[in-house]
Design goal:
Class-II_PLP-Dep_Aminotrans, two-stranded antiparallel ribbon, 16% strand, 5 strands, 144 residues, alpha/beta, PyrdxlP-dep_Trfase_major, Aspartate Aminotransferase, domain 2, pyridoxal phosphate, globular, 3-stranded parallel β-sheet, PyrdxlP-dep_Trfase
Amino acid sequence: MPFKSLSYIVLDDEYYRSIIKWYKIRENVELKQEWINYCYAELLEIVAIIRQISHVGTKFVITSPVRSALPKICTFNYREVIFNELQIKNNKFKFNFNVLNEQLRNPMVKAFLLCNSMKSPGKVMHSWAVNKKLLIYVIKIMLF
């Protein structure tokens, strides 16, 4: 049997089933195929968003490790990047929420780009961690 490519280019039913299965097993979340959308030009979309929500000189907090292209598109658009370094504990990435909170207090920070490293020991983030990070950012918006 020939090897079938599992790249992101092939968006067949198997691709969608694998995503649905993963979320069911890992997060106990029931997804529907029509809820899943793949963006072929994700970095171009991020550039458009960066330009829409900020101006030259503003800052973005980005979790790290991260694809090298993401910080570059910020700096190429004259925005400053502040890295929120993830720590490895028990072979999993962990956030230091105190550091993140301090970074987001900076009035020049206009966005928090939450990146999920899929490389070992990267794990897709649990919903509680994402919710906590979002709550910190919402509080920043409300207070500043």
